[in-house]
């Protein structure tokens, strides 16, 4: 979703500058590292967190590994991939691509994802089935609008044409201005 998390940085020795490349979001490259480990004591967890903070080998900016998700299970790794109360999730981002203000946006996205997972989909499905049960789905829905549309307007989904006319004085002023400043007027 965020281009900073799809960014590679490398030093171009020919140009003697740092270069940035943003990977297309449709590219199925693995853009982050996912790690699982265990801990038994607070000291073990602190060592893991210290390694996450200070190990320069955790990231590879050349191949766009700028984010790490480290699941740290208390005592043993869950076979079902379920995180329990004493487990820890560590999200680690390379400082070149993720600054402190980005943290708020990341946390909002994370909160939203968690909230979406907690919505019972059967309730959502039932709501929409009830709301749309009498609708004829082969015709346009009568939704509220903010301006009148001509009933025979052809819609392609690619845009809407809006036209208006200028009076003669304003049209002459446009042409004079364009001619004076050598601006080409486009009109259809």
Amino-to-carboxy terminus distance: 39 Å
Question: How many helix segments?
Answer: 4
Identify the CATH class of the domain at 3-118: Alpha Beta
The CATH topology of the domain at 3-118 = Chloramphenicol Acetyltransferase
**What pattern of helices and strands is seen along the backbone?**
EEEHEEHHH
Fraction in helix: 25-40%
Structural class: alpha+beta
> What's the main sheet like?
3 strands, mixed
Gyration radius, rounded? 28 Å
Taken from the alpha-carbon principal axes, the silhouette is flat
Give me the CATH architecture of the domain at 3-118, please: 2-Layer Sandwich
Overall mean pLDDT stands at 76
Indicate the proportion of strand residues.
15-25%
Please state how the strands of the largest beta sheet are arranged side by side.
3-4-5
Tell me the number of strands.
Answer: 5
Poorly predicted sequence stretches spanning 5 or more consecutive residues:
none
């Amino acid at each position: 979703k965020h281009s900073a998390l799809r960014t590679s940085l490398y030093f171009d020795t020919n140009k003697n500058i740092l270069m940035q490349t943003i990977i297309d979001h449709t590219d199925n490259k693995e853009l982050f590292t996912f790690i699982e480990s265990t801990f038994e004591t607070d000291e073990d967890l602190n060592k893991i967190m210290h390694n996450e903070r200070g190990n320069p080998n955790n990231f590879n900016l050349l191949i766009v590994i700028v984010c790490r998700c480290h699941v740290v299970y208390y005592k043993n790794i869950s076979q079902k991939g379920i995180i329990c109360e004493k487990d820890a999730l560590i999200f680690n981002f390379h400082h070149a691509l993720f600054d402190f203000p980005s943290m708020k946006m990341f946390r909002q996205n994370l909160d939203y994802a968690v909230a979406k997972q907690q919505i019972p989909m059967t309730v959502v499905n039932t709501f929409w089935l009830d709301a749309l049960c009498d609708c004829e789905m082969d015709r346009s829905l009568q939704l509220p609008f903010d301006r009148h549309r001509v009933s025979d307007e052809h819609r392609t989904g690619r845009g809407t044409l809006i036209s208006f006319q200028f009076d003669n004085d304003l049209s002459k002023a446009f042409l004079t201005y364009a001619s004076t400043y050598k601006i080409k007027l486009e009109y259809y």
